Every structure is written in C-alpha cells, then in structure tokens.
Amino acid sequence: MKPMAQDKSPSLNALRVFAVAAHADSFKQAAQQLGVSQSNITRQIQALEEQLGTRLFQRDNRVHALSAAGEVLAPDLLRIFRELDRVVDRARSVGDSELTTLRIAVPESFLRWWLSRRLAEFYALYPHIQVQFQTVELFPQSHGQATLCQQLAHEEIDLAIHYGALRDKALHSSVLYTPTYIPVAQASSEKALASRLWWVDSHAPYWRQFKKAQAHLARQLTLRHVSSCNIAIDLTHGTDHLTLIDQLFLMHPQLQGYVKHTEYQVSLPEAMVASYKQRARQPLALVAFHKWLDARLTSSLAGNAQPN
Question: Do 173 and 277 fall within a single domain?
C-alpha cells in the first residue's frame, strides 16, 4: 500500500467508523451500531487505509482481526472519541444554559416600581429565557461606573440599566428614556410646599437639576437626606412630606394616588440607558429582552401603564 500523503489528514468520519469497527465482532455488527450499510463501513475503512498508507484489518474472511497498525490505532482512537463525545455534550449543556440565561444589573427602584410588574409578560413571551437580577446604584458614581464596565467586559453580567452613559469604547449604551422627576406627597395639605419636610438624595442628579430649575423654592426647603427614592417613599408614607420621584415610577398602583406637583417637575440632563458589551452578534436572549424593554417603556411613557 502506498504511503499516506503528508498534506491530507484522515477523515474524521472514517476514523470514527474504524474506532467502532475495531471493537465490533464484524463489519456487519459495526454497521448495525452506526446505522449504516456494511458496504459503507467497508468503503470508509478502505479510504482510511488509503489515507494512512497501511492496512488496519487482516484480510481474512474467516477472522475479523486488526493488523499491527490497527492494534496501535484502535485503543487511543476509541478513548479520543469518547472524550470528544463528552466534550460535545458538555458544550451543548453549557451552551443551552448560557443562551437562555440573561444576567441583568438593575437599580432596585426601577425594578420595584416599574419593571417587576411587567416581567410576567416577558416570561410568557419567552418562557425559555431565565432572567437573573442583581441591583446596582440608580445614579452610579465613578467607582460604580468602573465596576459596571468591568462586569460587562468580563461578561459577569449581560445588561446593565442605569443613569448616564458609561465611558468605555468596548461597551454600547442604548438610550431607554429621559427621566422626569416630580415633587410628590402621599397626603394632600393646605400648607405651602416650602413649609413642609422634603426627603431627597442631596447628591443625586435630580436634586441638582431641581435646585437649578427651582432655585427660589429650593432655598426655602427643609431637607432630610436619604440615599434612595425607596427610603424616601417609605418615610413620606402617611404624611404630607414630599420627595421627588421619576414619573415612570408613579404609574405603580401604590404611587398612583400620590399628590403630584407637576408645575415643579424637572427633566434630567442625561438618560436612563441599557449598556452591554460590543459584539459582532449579540445573544438572542439579550436582543429579545432589550426589544421588549424598549417597547414596554414606550408604551408606559405614552400613557399605557397597565401590562397587556
């Protein structure tokens, strides 16, 4: 038999056929195991022998036996294919999990007052997508932004929802909406706004914008600092105290009855955005959630606040 051509690798399919045939009692049995004809087995073995430049089986109709070369090749080849099957199975199981699990970093207030009520609709549309949430700051400072950039770049999370764009060329930030903050109180009062207690995050962009737009009123207010709007809502419950809340959150049933002072509302200079890693092709779960989120926000901001 002529030597194997140096620039032609053996067929993977032929190697697999040989691995099965080498451990079968006959070519007929190998054909049954692989679900092909016996003549197909013979052709694959002959082609492999031609490629290798040596015989792999003894040519004796009475005995199904390996040649010396076949004895060398068979044990390692079977082990390699078994390991390959295990790797492929593992890749399939991991791939299924990765493609259908979406990890989202979201501000707790956005999740509590707007997103959570609408997730049932998303799960009904995409039952195969599992969403895992972790909370992040609504208004991330430099350290929080750096952490988000790192988590997105290292694929520890797939999507981050936050205020203001992240300055990282490896990431893409898509505008969701521009927040408008409105002074609200749970209970109505005849007292002037300036004489009532206000609970605000004095470091947040909404307060800086309010002080700029409503400078005269802001100078008269008695303030108490809180670190989040969730705390402010809890502390104003049952009182005529005020806080500033994103108008999107005011669509929540618990907040719809709040007294709104829209004449003092302010729009923020930057938008709420969805950030994710730049890729040639985005995961299907990420694309599905992002499109659904855009559609639901558009519907809510247009006044259709109730989930369909």
Answer: yes
